[in-house]
Amino acid sequence: MTVRPSKIIGVGRNYAAHAAELGNEVPTSPIIFLKPPSSLLADGAPIVLPSESQRVEFEGEIGIVIGARARRVSERDAAHVVRGVVAFNDVTARDLQKADGQWARAKGFDTFGPMGAEQAYVGDWGALSVVTRVNGVERQRARADLMVFSIPRLVAFISSVMTLEPGDVIATGTPSGTAALSPGDVVEVTIEGTDGRALSRVGNPVAAPE
Questions:
Q1: How many helices (H) and strands (E) are present in the chain, helices listed first?
Q2: CA-to-CA distance for 107 and 66, rounded, in angstroms?
Q3: What domains can be seen in the chain, in order of their start residue?
Q4: What pTM was estimated for this model as a whole?
Q5: Cα 165 to the chain's mean position, in Å?
């Protein structure tokens, strides 16, 4: 893992089907949150289930890596400040997310940010796909053109709120199909290009609480 972000910006409920499966309305503007860089986890390292949670879920996502300092970038210019894509797993303690009413603890535990190797990408952002498998069984698959807010829209919106620095990562939201993880599971997130070729992948075993 070579990306060293100063911040990871997550996007909530960016696929209508995922919002529906959690009983939430589709947002009218992007819902963003910060995930700590201390949560990052390399390919092959274990996701450790914290004792504080009884339900930890995977969330496969398309991650984009910022390549140039960006402030109030337009949607049309968004591609110029993005240097690549990464597979990202926004691991979430779902019970704590509901209990707290905000998401910092639920998404901020150490090991809750598995991220694959960065791959340069120039092309149709809407044609990217995220695929999540647990123990080899496909659990999530969706193209980026199903997002409520497109990748260029997210870059424009987030950069209107905060300055994006080179290496920062935007985790663009998860599609439907999230489910709980158990010790011994292996979860794998892959980002595919238009030809179905894997651009970035991250796979991690799941471990019991320490």
A1: 4, 14
A2: 21
A3: 8-207 (3.90.850.10)
A4: 0.96
A5: 18
